[in-house]
Amino acid sequence: MFARLLEFNKRPFEALSEQEMLALAISSEEDDAKIYQTYAEGLREDFPDSARIFDAMAAEEHEHRRWLIDLHRQKFGEFIPLIRREHVRGFFNVKPLWLVKPYGIDKIRAQARQMEAQAWRFYSAAAKQASDASIRQLMGDLAEAEASHVASTDEVVDEHTPADIQDKERQQEHKQLILTYIQPGLAGLMDGSVSTLAPIFAVAFATQDTWTTFLVGVAASIGAGISMGFTEVASDDGVISGRGSPIKRGLATGIMTTVGGLGHALPYLIPSFWTATTIAVVVVFIELWVIAWIQNRFMETPWGKALFQVVLGGALVFAAGVLIGGG
Asked: What is the Rg, in whole angstroms, of the alpha carbon atoms belonging to the chain?
């Protein structure tokens, strides 16, 4: 609903003058060139082959911009009105993937194809709407250029980044994802799920008071999350190890530590002690299974080894809590 209201406040494409169409084309080419160049710079270190693609695309957008400015200067003078895609109905919003790290190679390539297709539709419509012969010709030429880009994008990708290079880039991206998010998050989930078992169940069996147990569980989970998060941030700045931003790793570790502890603390919001404890035990088994699955799926740990490590460790800590609380 809000999106439709925003669209209603924009200029319809049909209402644009020829000068405004040229100005819109100039700003669009400038934006696309900057986006492609940002992709290239962001990908250059880890994905040089893909970076070359976006270098070439940025250079071509700059060339189109020069053609458009020359024609605007010839027809309307030096002053170029400020009009951008977000001011006109029908243009999709380009998602700021260049602000996201690690870069999603396939997502960026897909967005580039989408941008080229939109540019082709814009120039095709502008060519039909323009009455000035020179503007109509340039818009038509640019439409043909963008159409060839859309048709040959996959060929360009294959030329610069053949299948083996693309596989290598995806492996590198997957590795970075694991180092920055999966591995720290897994460490946090394991710590939160296992280390809080003893205090939570010790308090539960010692007091059989569900509210007290819940408060202790929340305090232990949040405290462990803060501690683990700061420890991860301080342990490695990521420059030498290549593990990525310490802030991102710290957030992944801290959040997952807290989640791991809260999983079996929340059931104690139920007033009935045995009902809450039964559900908490079930949650613990689910948590341990999830940890084993993540180890197998992302860390390539064999199922048997993962289950043995997680279940044995969890069972020992759980038993310690019950024995201490029950004694």
From this structure: 28
pLDDT at 49: 75
- Find out whether 157 and 134 touch, Cβ atoms under 8 Å: no
Identify the structural domains of the chain with CATH numbers, from first to last: 2-161 (1.20.1260.10), 168-326 (no CATH)
- Rounded to the nearest 5°, which phi and psi values hold at 192? -65, -40
Structure confidence at residue 206 (pLDDT): 85
Q: Is 130 left (phi over 0), alpha (psi -120 to 50) or beta?
A: beta
CA-nearest of 230, 24, 2, 18 to 130 is 18
Task: Compute the C-alpha angle 231/234/238, nearest 5°.
Answer: 120
Alpha-carbon gap, residue 24 to 129, rounded angstroms:
14
Tell me the three state secondary structure of residue 300: coil
Backbone angles phi and psi of 184, in degrees to 5: -60, -40
Residue with tokens 């095709």: 124
Min mean pLDDT across 45-54, 127-136, 173-182 is at 173-182
Give 296-309 pLDDT, tens digit per residue. 777 667 777 777 77
Written as six digits, the tokens of 16 are 């644009």
Q: How far apart are CA 82 and CA 93, in angstroms?
A: 18
* Angle (CA) 265 271 274, round 5°: 75
CB–CB of 237/289 below 8 Å?
no
Specify the pTM: 0.48
Tokens 């040229």 belong to residue? 22
Reported in sequence order, the residue ranges of 109-192 that DSSP labels E, i.e. its strands, are: none
